Amino acid sequence: MLNIGDYIVKAGEGVCRVDSTIMMKVPGDGPEVPYYLLVPVSDARIKVYLPVLEEYTEIRPVMSRSEAQIFVESVSRIEATEVRDEKQRESTYKDALRSCEPERIVGIIKHMSNRSLERQAQGKKNTAMDERYFAMAEKALYSEIGFALEKTDEEVRLLLNEVTAI
Questions:
Q1: Of 79, 94, 96, 136, which one has the fewest beta carbons inside 10 Å?
Q2: How many CA atoms lie within 13 A of 136 on its CB side?
Q3: Are 60 and 50 in contact (CB under 8 A)?
């Protein structure tokens, strides 16, 4: 159960604060049920609603400062995700982002970076899909680490570049 004022990571939204609980009517003729109102720290104009009574795999607590520092030190040891089947590439990216697991997100960032270098060596551009998911993965990773370490996304990018080429 979440508490008002908690900070969590929500897949697709990044770091959010639990603002309140409200009663909302279920679509159709259903009864009113309690929902959490989440507000992303990156944009307070956005409102995200989660039913209180459901179990979620796409949310988790935000890393603490010490967890973020340990994680940053471990990034160089995380392997790039291997995507063997071109048809499964987007599914692999989506699954990693939905997992809310920073290690998996780093894995796909490293994969996409390696893939970009390979394509450049062949005189090819990155695909639009790779560009889109790369931006989403960076946002997810950098926003949480930045929140925990009180740094901007650019400062996080520089910090991670110091410990590894990602």
A1: 79
A2: 19
A3: no
C-alpha closest to that of 50 among 86, 92, 8, 82: 8
138 phi and psi angles, rounded to 5 deg: -60, -45
pLDDT of residue 9: 95
Q: Which of 145, 158, 162 is nearest to 69 (CA)?
A: 145
* CA within 13 Å, CB half, 36: 24
Spell out the alpha helix ranges (H) of the chain. Answer: 65-74, 89-99, 102-121, 128-149, 153-163
> Per-residue pLDDT for 19 more than 80?
yes
- Predicted model pTM: 0.87
**Residue 20 pLDDT:** 96
- Convert the pLDDT of each residue in 57-95 to its tens digit: 789 999 999 999 999 999 999 999 999 888 899 999 999
Q: What is the pLDDT of residue 60?
A: 93
Distance of alpha carbon 113 from alpha carbon 166, whole angstroms: 7
Domain with CATH 1.20.58.1290 in the chain: 63-163
Rg (C-alpha) for the chain, rounded Å, is 18
Indicate the class that CATH gives domain 63-163: mainly alpha
